[in-house]
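Hi Y.,

Following your request, here is the sequence exactly as I used it, all 138 residues.
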Amino acid sequence: MELQTIQTQTTWNDAAERINHNNLKIATELAKLGASTYKNKGYFSSVGSLLSAYPSASEGCIAYIGTSYPYTIYVWSKAANTWLNSGQNGGDVNVELGDYYTKEETARVVEDYHTVLTQEQYDSLESYEDKLYFCTED
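Below is the corresponding structure, written out as tokens. Let me know if you'd prefer a different format.
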């Protein structure tokens, strides 16, 4: 990682630009480091959803597969270059993936609450502090 030198005799704009550049580089490297050292990849309802999120990983990474406790524990195998069933079960009894909507179910629920207003209807709306209106143009 190459950082820019902050000159002692410079304008504030130039110094700020270099500082921001350096901060961005440092933040990027820290994010990479964090991602490479965190071995627990989380809970997934299926092996397919795990593969979509993490098609590859590093040796020692684990993931929990299933919709309720006990979850099947998968480990990343560097030798096989894939996720393998460890033959063990575990995970947190408080995580219940079976209670969540799928993407398709969520889309159906959202569509039930989606209302398209004409400009006249929108103009006639009264202002409410507890309501939020999203407006888009076709």
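Strands lie at 40-44, 62-65, 71-77, 82-90.

Thanks again,
Q.
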